[in-house]
Amino acid sequence: MQGLEFYSATTEGIGFLNRESGAITYVHHPEKGITGNRFNDGTCDPAGRFWIGSMALSEETGAGSVYMFEKGKSSKKIDHTTISNGLAWNADHTLLYFIDTPTKSVVAYDYQLENGAISNGRTVISIDETEGFPRRDDHRF
Hints:
Elements (H helix, E strand, L loop, with lengths): L4 E6 L2 E6 L5 E5 L8 E8 L5 E7 L7 E7 L2 E9 L2 E6 L5 E6 L4 E8 L4 E10 L15
Antiparallel strand pairs: 1-2, 2-3, 4-5, 5-6, 6-7, 8-9, 9-10, 10-11
């Protein structure tokens, strides 16, 4: 990645977006054979790895996944998601928080900064249906 390039994820896969030219250079697609899915949410973890969540254009329940991308390869981290809509880490980088909007909950995973491994997923916040749907709109969590 060069100075003006940033990670990008589209229906075409994962690439680097050049902010000056607007060109995207695609380098990988973890769901290449899955038609009807797109990436909905992405952010970098504290170590600079790119995490992206996919979803079905039809919003089919469980059709999406969450991937971690680094060094030209991706690994699936969370399976059977519907609308990936929030990824964030706590201040000491020991927890990953994830929102799958239709579940109306925030799930925390134990997180290992050195390799991006997650484990022990558990619901830490449940949103009452009268309060709407959870999603991450900013960088405060």
